[in-house]
Design the sequence.
């Protein structure tokens, strides 16, 4: 069961379940409205068109992965724009312009990182490190153990569409949405 609160919490109104208890999951929507739900699936049905009609978990995971690629691509763009606005990168600089073009092109797709001064270093350590001015937005499913490349460390935000709860928590951690769950906060998520 779920309810969408279009009142943006005005006058202290916070919906409760029919039995008076609190909802297990809350999603903040743009414009201040919120979705209160019993399950992560109900929250995801608000975010992903057709999610509730997906026939099984593999179809739902595929829907989360498509959604993650879209959200991650948009948020990679936001991070590029923020870095430009903060003066961390300069589109007029040829090196920065090349980086901007590369990050926009590969947004959320797997990328093999190497160090310019030592191309073998990343391969030797097994964990390439991104230290660029623009935070990378990466999907867990694009890297090992799901993909072939080792996952980069460093200045990276991870989006994990492998499970419903993990996906929502990773979107919150990456700053892509406002999500709350009793279970997540009970364990410090």
Sequence:
């Amino acid at each position: 069961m779920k309810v969408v609160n279009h009142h943006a919490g005005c006058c202290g109104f916070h919906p409760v379940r029919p039995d008076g208890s609190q909802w297990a999951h809350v999603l903040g929507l743009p414009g201040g409205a919120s979705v209160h739900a019993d399950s992560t699936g109900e929250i995801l049905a608000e975010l992903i068109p057709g999610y509730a009609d997906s026939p099984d978990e593999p179809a739902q995971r595929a829907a989360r992965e498509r959604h993650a690629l879209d959200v991650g691509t948009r948020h990679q763009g936001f991070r590029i724009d923020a870095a430009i606005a903060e003066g961390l990168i300069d589109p007029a600089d040829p090196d920065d312009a090349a980086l901007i073009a590369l990050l926009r092109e590969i947004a959320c797709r797997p990328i093999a990182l190497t160090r310019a001064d030592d191309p073998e270093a990343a391969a030797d350590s097994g964990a390439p490190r991104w230290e660029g001015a623009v935070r990378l937005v990466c999907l867990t499913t694009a890297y090992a153990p799901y993909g072939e490349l080792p996952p980069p460390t460093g200045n990276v935000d991870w989006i994990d569409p492998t499970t419903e709860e993990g996906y929502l928590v990773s979107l919150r951690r990456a700053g892509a949405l406002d999500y709350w769950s009793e279970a997540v906060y009970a364990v410090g998520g």
Remarks:
- The chain has two domains: 2-53+165-186, 57-163.
- The longest helix spans residues 57-85.
